Amino acid sequence: MLLLLALTTATLGLVSSSSLIILKKDGITGPAPCAVTCVGTTGENDTPWSGTEGAISTYVDIAGCGFVDTPIITTTFDGYHGNDISRMSQAAVYHASKEGFTVNMYGFIHTAYRVNTLKPGPDIAKSHLWKVNWAAFGYNC
User: Fold this and answer.
1) What is the DSSP letter of 36?
2) Which of 1, 24, 39, 48 has the maximal Cβ count within 10 Å?
3) Considering the entire predicted model, what is its pTM?
4) End-to-end distance of the chain based on CA atoms, in angstroms?
């Protein structure tokens, strides 16, 4: 009976353990049960783009994820004219915190089939329904 209890406890421990491991600076991890992935999008008609031609940005609120410190964040971009976004020369996450982050997008680059000198501003981003899709990996306890 004691052996059965030990096997049951070991099996339940394996089933309930988290398989998400998040390595941060210097390989430090948080408690496994607290590791979470939180994903979202700014939405096609809801992204508040600002800036000037060739340099646009938006703030992404992730406070609803409940992170206890700054998570690891990745982004992708989508919109009505997806090819425009694929030619952006640089997009970066800035000022990341457990509450949110800013995404800056700079300029256009040329592709093998199209030379483009257009530098999109907030109006183009809004009319082409550009949005930020994001994934954040961190701890909630």
Assistant:
1) E
2) 24
3) 0.76
4) 36
